[in-house]
Amino acid sequence: MPSNIDPVYSKQGRFGSGGTASTFSISTSTANTAFDGTGTIGTDIFVAFTADATNGSFLRSVVAKIRSTGVGVASVLRLYINNGSANGTNTNNALYKELSIPAITANQTAATPDFEIPCNIMLPPGYRILYTFGTAPVNTWMVFGVGGDY
Question: Is this model's pTM higher than 0.70 or not?
Answer without folding.
Answer: yes
